[in-house]
Structure formats: C-alpha cells, structure tokens
Amino acid sequence: MIRLASILYSMIGPTLAGSAVVVVLTMGQVTWVPIVVAAVAGAVLAVPVSWIVARKIEDLR
Q1: Does this model's pTM top 0.85?
Q2: What is the mean pLDDT of each run of 10 residues along the chain (61 residues)?
Q3: Is the alpha carbon torsion for 29, 33, 36, 37 positive or negative?
Q4: What DSSP designation does 38 have?
Q5: Are 2 and 51 in contact (CB under 8 A)?
Q6: What is the Cα–Cα distance from 41 to 19, expressed in whole angstroms?
Q7: 8 and 55 in contact (C-beta within 8 Å)?
Q8: Are 54 and 1 in contact (CB under 8 A)?
Q9: Of 13, 5, 4, 3, which is closest to residue 41 (Cα–Cα)?
C-alpha cells in the first residue's frame, strides 16, 4: 500500500500545495513567507490524504 500511497502523493501533493498557494495569493499575501508556508502546509496535508485514498482504493479490491 505504501507504493500506491506514494504514487497518489505525487499527484495529490502538488495539487494541495498549489491550491493553498492560490488561496494565499487570493487573500493578498504576496510575500514569500506566506507562500512558502502555504506550499509546505499543502504538501504535509497531502500525506494523510494520500494514505486515506490509498486505503480506500485497497478496500475496493
């Protein structure tokens, strides 16, 4: 399952990180600190999301 979660992370991680950066930029925060914090937060949040999605896919088998 770790392999599936890793593959999913390669798609979910950039998506959540990019979405978080777009949210920060929409809020008017244009300095590098909030942008980096949002990107890291999205990447970290993607770890459990990828694991949960992988578990759900494995349960379907």
Answers
A1: yes
A2: 96 98 97 98 98 96 80
A3: negative
A4: H
A5: no
A6: 11
A7: no
A8: yes
A9: 13
